Amino acid sequence: MKKITIAAILGITALSLSTGAFAQIKPEEQIKFRKAAYSFASWNMVKIKANLEGTYDAAQVKAAANAIASVAGSGIGALFSPGTEKSIGAEKTFAKPELFQKTADVAKLAGDFAAASNELVAAADSGDAAAVKAAHGKVGASCKACHDQFKLR
Amino acid sequence: MKKITIAAILGITALSLSTGAFAQIKPEEQIKFRKAAYSFASWNMVKIKANLEGTYDAAQVKAAANAIASVAGSGIGALFSPGTEKSIGAEKTFAKPELFQKTADVAKLAGDFAAASNELVAAADSGDAAAVKAAHGKVGASCKACHDQFKLR
Asked: What interface predicted TM-score (ipTM) does this complex get?
C-alpha cells in the first residue's frame, strides 16, 4: 500500500486522478489518511500543552498551531466517503455509523474545529501564552465534542 | 491509547509534560505519531498531484502545500528517540536500523524535505501550476531519497 502511494505521488505508475482531487483515494486509504490527519493534529496539541506547562518555545508553538490548522483546513470530509463506514482489513475505523448520517451536525463540529484552530494560530502568532492556552482549550473541546458524539472509543 | 492522548490534551489527567515538549511521548506513541505525520503529508502530496492532473484548485493546492510544510517543520526528529527503533506491539515501524545511526545523513535528508516543502508553499502561493509541478516533484524526490535509504518497504 505504501509503495503504491509513493509511486502515485512520484508519477511512476499510470494511476490517473484526473476526475478530481479526492475521487480516486481508495476507501481503506481514506480511513488511513483521516486517522493520520487527526493523529498528527493530536501530537501537535500535546506539544502545545507541553510548552504551556514547561518552557514556552514560541516558534514551536507557532509551528504546532499551524500544523493543527492545516489538518482542520485539509478538506478531511472527503475522506469519509461512502464505503468507509466500517473497518477495511487492517485499516480500523472507530467512527460511529451516525457520523455518516448526521452530516449537518458533523459539518458544524468541523467548522468549530477550524474556527478554534484559526484562533490558536492567531494566539500563537501573538506570542501570548495565556491566549494560546485559551485557544488550545477551545480546540481540545472541539475535538472532544466530536469524539463524544461520533467516535466509538 | 487514544483516550489517554485526548485526556492529556484536555488536561483531564494529571499527566505532566513539564520537562519539555517532547520528553514524555511514549515510544509507541512516537512511532504512531511519526507515521501519521508522513501519512498526512502523503495524502496532501496525492491531492496536489490530482490538482495538477485534473482541475487546478488554487486554494486546495495552497492548503495542501502548507500541510506538507507543516509536517516538514514539525520537529519530527523528536519522534525517533532511542527505544523506537523496532515495532512496539501493534505500532509497527519500517525504519531501518541505520536511520538511528546515520544521523548526519538523516538530518541532510530532512533538510532537503523542508527546503522542497517551502518551495512548494511558495509555488502554491504564486498560483503557477508549472512551478507547483516542479516543486511537487522535488518534494516527492526528497521523500523517495529517504525511503530508499532508510525505510524497509
From this structure: 0.86
Q: Which residue of B has its CA nearest to A53?
A: B18
Nine-digit cell string for B35 = 507515521
How far A48 CA sits from the closest chain B CA (Å)? Answer: 7
Q: What contacts A9, CB < 8 A, 6 or more positions away?
A: B42, B45, B46, B49, B140, B143
Q: Taking a C-beta distance cutoff of 8 angstroms, is the pair B112, B142 a contact?
A: yes
Is B53–A8 a contact, with Cβ atoms under 8 angstroms apart? no
Grid cell 531501518 — which residue? B96
3-state SS, residue A95: strand
For B32, the grid coordinates are 504512531
Side-chain half-sphere exposure of A110, counting CA atoms within 13 A:
18
Measured between beta carbons, the chain A residues lying within 8 angstroms of B8 are 46, 49
Give the gap in angstroms from C-alpha A111 to the nearest C-alpha of chain B: 16
- Residue B137: burial class (beta carbons within 10 Å; 0-12, 13-18, 19+): middle
Of the candidates B36, B45, B147, the beta carbon closest to that of A39 is on B36
Cα separation, B115 vs A42, whole angstroms: 25
Q: pLDDT digit of tens for each residue in chain A (153 aa)?
A: 344 444 444 443 333 333 344 448 999 999 999 999 999 999 999 999 999 999 999 999 999 999 999 999 999 999 999 999 999 999 999 999 999 999 999 999 999 999 999 999 999 999 999 999 999 999 999 999 999 999 998
Q: How far is A23 from chain B (nearest CA, A)?
A: 9
